[in-house]
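Need residues for this backbone.
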């Protein structure tokens, strides 16, 4: 079992948007005032989209554009959970889950216990799965000061009803990691995040084409590798490819009626690595008196390609949309002739995604 991960870095470019709001603006005297999400670093303000919101957009794109049948959600009082069935629902597999469930009670040999009538004894368990897809928030690459937009509802009789919202223009960055070794691969250890399947689902999987493999990282008390349950290779390839392909059509964000914005990547880096370390977090930065100008850190990109050369598997794909950061086009092209770095291909965004997916398909065992 190879320990390989897709490492992705994206830039989106938006104008006059409010992609993720934070509720009432307590700094305004207007009762109907909404603030956008922002955070401070080194005394500067940066707008952002929460990681949860990005995952919501991603799931929606997989459902609407990749044909995924999403796992149904059940609400019970103050908690909500999906079906926690990664065999049937690809989003349970890729995005992870937690759910309390009934499962077979096992004896010392790992076999289901039965009562006097021959019925399998059941016990309460909690099945959980750490998401193979991990992502950051999407945050402005440079400092941003949202503008207060005053509007009003005036179509009714009587006085107008005023309201305010914050809007901004920004180039925003985000990163993600997809664990290719764990997509479609499940553990069943009595440990939070690692008891992925009930006994019933495990048996169902093995009866329907899944198979056992050794876990190269976890041993039992006798020093032997524990077993993982793995789905057919074609299923694992499709789920991984669909997840990356969804970036081409992802959409979402608050205030889209009046502040529609395109949140597909205008710049993307895609690479397969043999570690969980994400190397591309600082390839974009800012400068200026107020750190409001976005700059591409080309030297930083070359540095991480050299420093982590031995951890890259295959080609590093870079995609850039024409009209976005045209000033770095020649620098990016020069990567193809550099020594002491992995092979780099510079393409359009969609070409980079497509060609990376072909490479990733071949890398999945």
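Answer:
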């Amino acid at each position: 079992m190879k320990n390989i991960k897709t490492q992705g870095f994206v830039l989106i470019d938006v104008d006059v948007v409010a992609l993720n709001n934070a509720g009432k603006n307590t700094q305004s005297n207007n009762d109907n005032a909404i603030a956008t999400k922002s955070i401070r670093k080194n005394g500067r303000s940066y707008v952002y989209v929460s990681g949860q919101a990005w995952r919501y957009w991603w799931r929606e794109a997989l459902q609407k554009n990749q044909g995924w049948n999403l796992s149904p959600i059940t609400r019970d009082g103050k908690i909500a959970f999906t079906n926690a069935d990664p065999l049937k629902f690809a989003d349970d597999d890729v995005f992870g889950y937690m759910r309390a469930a009934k499962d077979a009670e096992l004896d010392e040999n790992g076999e289901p216990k039965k009562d006097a009538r021959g019925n399998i004894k059941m016990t309460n368990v909690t099945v959980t799965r750490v998401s193979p897809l991990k992502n950051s928030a999407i945050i402005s690459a440079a400092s941003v000061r949202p503008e207060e937009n005053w509007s009003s509802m005036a179509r009714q009789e009587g006085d107008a009803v005023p309201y305010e919202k914050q809007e901004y223009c920004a180039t925003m960055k985000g990163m993600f990691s997809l664990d290719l070794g764990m997509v479609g691969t499940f553990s069943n250890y009595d440990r939070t995040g690692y008891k992925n399947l009930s006994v019933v689902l495990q048996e169902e999987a093995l009866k329907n084409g899944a198979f056992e493999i050794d876990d190269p990282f976890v041993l039992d008390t006798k020093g032997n590798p524990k077993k993982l349950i793995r789905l057919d290779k074609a299923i694992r390839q499709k789920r991984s490819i669909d997840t990356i392909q969804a970036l081409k059509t992802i959409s979402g964000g608050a205030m889209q009626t009046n502040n529609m914005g395109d949140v597909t990547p205008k710049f993307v880096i895609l690479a397969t690595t043999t570690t969980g370390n994400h190397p591309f977090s600082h390839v974009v930065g800012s400068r200026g008196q107020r750190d409001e100008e976005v700059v591409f850190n080309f030297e930083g990109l070359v540095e991480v390609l050299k420093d982590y050369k031995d951890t890259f598997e295959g080609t590093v794909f870079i995609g850039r949309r024409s009209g976005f950061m045209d000033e770095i086009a020649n620098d990016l092209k020069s990567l193809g002739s550099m020594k002491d770095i992995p092979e780099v291909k510079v393409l359009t965004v969609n070409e980079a995604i497509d060609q990376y997916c072909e490479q990733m398909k071949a890398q999945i065992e």
